[in-house]
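re: ur question from yesterday

yeah so i grabbed the chain u mentioned. its 77 aa long if i counted rite. heres the sequnce exactly as i have it in my notes:
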Amino acid sequence: MGKEILTALAQEVTDTVGVEESAVVALDGIAARIEAAVAKALENGATAEELAPVTDEVANLKATREKLAAAVAANQG
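ran it thru and got these structure tokens back, copy pasting raw so excuse formatting
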């Protein structure tokens, strides 16, 4: 039974890392889409000041992504 517990734990760790890595990819995609929308809005006459709340949120999203990526890296070593 001891080996089964360790095998289950190893699988749980693998699954969790996979989910975390997927979350990093998703955060990257969301940030890229928002940045593209901001760029388009700027092309269409919006100002950087008007879009500052959105760009601030992108910065927060990227900071969260970096923390998550660091956690994933730490758990793989």
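noticed a couple things. The longest helix spans residues 2-43. also Residues 33-77 form one domain.
anyway ttyl
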